[in-house]
Amino acid sequence: MLSPKIRQTRRARSKSLVMGEQSQSPRQSPCSHRLGPVLKAGWLKKQRSIMKNWQRRWFVLHGDQLFYYKDKNETKPQGFISLQGMQVTQLLPGPEDVGKHLFEIGPDAGEQEKVPANPEALLLMASSQRDMEDWVQAIRQVIWAPFGGGVFGQRLEDTVHYERKYGPRLAPMLVEQCVDFIRERGLTEEGLFRMPGQANLVRDLQDSFDCGEKPLFDSTTDVHTVASLLKLYLRELPEPVVPFARYEDFLSCAQLLTKDEGEGTLELARKVSTLPLANYNLLRYICKFLDEVQSHSNVNKMSVQNLATVFGPNILRPQIEDPVSIMEDSKKVLPTCGNKCCS
Known about the structure:
The protein is an alpha+beta fold. The chain has 11 helices and 8 strands.
């Protein structure tokens, strides 16, 4: 596979430069209440610049500013870092850092001359791999969303709004790119969407899209990797394609379908038609594509039920998740939903 042009996000530990306390910085701390809602908050450890020891601090992501406080209930931050012109990098732990989940925020290599902020990097440690990935994703969205990046975990309506400048479309560009590639090269691939792609390549492609790049797929690109990337995008949406607020409505359709298929189908069609436009368009687009996939089920072994099992939790799930219920409910609704969207 020809490697997409990606920003290197996993590298060996480099020399650590750490942002000092706010009192050492000549910049004025911005008023956090003017920066909009809190995007993320939680405990992280930061490394001190002189002693190299770790301090546990409460971090709050407000707009494009990352504040840190000595305590969760403090109102005055000890310091902050502006994310404009910065990049966030996950670090591979060295021999002395085994078990640590490290990431770094520092100036983008191509932006250093433009960044008026403290040029030092902020070295942080999360409590788990998942926590680190969540922080990296949230920060990356702030950095790259204005440039078309940060699409994984971004609200669907925000992605659609940004991409309007490229012309009308029914689905986000990443979804279209994945679907077009699979339609051209993968419809007859056995186990499509069931077989996993290469995890490292999926992660590299995710990093590339999140950094505002547009990696291309070619004849050597693994179909299962692209299929996994598409599933990952849907799974990372803050809300599923069918919004949380509509889950009970669609669940009632599933119950009605078991009693009266005709009436249940009509009711489901009505529920689908009332979805927000971006959600309706994406659901219709995905269902039409999955109908193409199942039409080759004699070769790819992916029947309607198999596809409902794979895609169900990414399209329809409650805010408080029960994996068993989600699987059963989505398997009842999605096949009929797909038929209605394709009609």
